[in-house]
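Pasting as-is:
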Amino acid sequence: MLTRSDIIKDLYLRLTTARLGYSAGLIGTVYTIGTDWSGNWYFQLRWLNRPAGKRQRPVSERSLNLRESDLENFERITWEQVQELLKESRPPSKPRKALRLLGSWRVKRHPNQLRLFEGCSLPGSGQDG
């Protein structure tokens, strides 16, 4: 179990139980250590693999102020373990959409339309005249 003296800046921690609205397995690095105005010790994590949500407002990647009692929910991990876990938890990439022409550049042809200039190609038509 981690103690207050184990916590140093840039230490990697993994959340072992679902807590504080976060699911188990989240990885964070210790970002801030300090005491609040009443003298209580706290630390903050910067989450490395926080799942993207569907919130309208941007959310900070830092955690809330965590106390000494919260240390029982975390375990220390190494940089190599972080790399492995981040590879596993990375979502598959979506295929990119093909680029499309702007609406004004799209060619709308009518079957009975005659071409005004036979030797010229129309922009966006993909044809050579």
